[in-house]
Amino acid sequence: MRILIAPDKFAGTLTAVEAAEAIAAGWSRHAPDDELELVPMADGGPGFVDVLHATLGGELLAVTVTGPHREPTPATILVVGDTAYVESAQACGLALTGASGAGSATTYGVGELVLAAADAGARRVVVGLGGSGSNDGGAGFLAALGATADRPLDQGGAALTGITSLTVPASPEVEIVAASDVDSPLTGLFGATKVYGPQKGLTEDQLPALDGALQDLAAAAGPSGRRLALEAGAGAAGGLGYGLLVAGARRQPGLALLADAVGLLAKARRADLVVTGEGAFDFSSRAGKVPYGVADVAARAARPCVVLAGRVDVGAREMRALGVESAYALVDVVGEERALADPAGSLAALAERVARSWSPRRGGE
């Protein structure tokens, strides 16, 4: 059989690349003659650059940018032809903030990444959005590009309160693409602060003031700025999506962009079975998460898709609605303690068991 292995990261335990390798190792123990193609996936958040490099190759450029709390932070730019890929989480991610200080965290380093990519000769820069620890509406990003205002733009969202003027310079002479599956507006009940702020350590008492600061930012940008604040994706990555839109970026769903870049549909058509996975497979997986996107590609290729996950919290009916034939949970096979203690080994064990069902040996062994 030909198996396409295209998992997301298992958050907190395995990167997407590590997950794909573990699945392949376990599968090969049962079916060593199967042809395995590993295509780790991401939706624009942490791991975006790594999974693209694993599949596309290209040149990795090491740079140092301003971190969320203005500390020097290492980051990587992937250059493939005339396109550069950068990951916003490397400059303002939750892993850097430790889910604290979101009100003062800046996205300045993301702007530095875009400028560095342009300096390296890129004509198109794709910015993966997700996993952010910031909530500044992209003000820091704009400041790095040369924007000015009557409030500091590089001190986080809280410092924007009362801003009345914002001057945005001409965008760099590159095409900027915001890769994100989040379709939230900048502000309001379903905006960046109210929906995602608590995940970044913001308290209920802090949310109204920060949401108001982002409303001030949009108003300071004028009529076009207020309009862009309502666009789908403006609320992505603590409003960084908004800053990118103000700078002239166009938004593209992150998973679809990555799937197109790696030729996932063509790879699925060559396979007999598509295997994907993530840490927790539940009905929220429909909201732009990797397994749903991979299952959709598998359906377009008329191939079955199965999910391997840390936990599976959907029933058969919901599973079918997500386009998945079957889903298998690590905790059901090895238990939660072992799954956390040895995630790669546990995932390999699960994959070996799944292979027995989907790739039986000759003679029914």
TrEMBL record:
<keyword id="KW-0418">Kinase</keyword>
<dbReference type="InterPro" id="IPR018193">
    <property type="entry name" value="Glyc_kinase_flavodox-like_fold"/>
</dbReference>
<dbReference type="InterPro" id="IPR036129">
    <property type="entry name" value="Glycerate_kinase_sf"/>
</dbReference>
<comment type="similarity">
    <text>Belongs to the glycerate kinase type-1 family.</text>
</comment>
<keyword id="KW-0808">Transferase</keyword>
<dbReference type="GO" id="GO:0031388">
    <property type="term" value="P:organic acid phosphorylation"/>
</dbReference>
<dbReference type="GO" id="GO:0008887">
    <property type="term" value="F:glycerate kinase activity"/>
</dbReference>
<dbReference type="InterPro" id="IPR018197">
    <property type="entry name" value="Glycerate_kinase_RE-like"/>
</dbReference>
<protein>
    <submittedName>
        <fullName>Glycerate kinase</fullName>
    </submittedName>
</protein>
<dbReference type="InterPro" id="IPR004381">
    <property type="entry name" value="Glycerate_kinase"/>
</dbReference>
<dbReference type="Pfam" id="PF02595">
    <property type="entry name" value="Gly_kinase"/>
</dbReference>
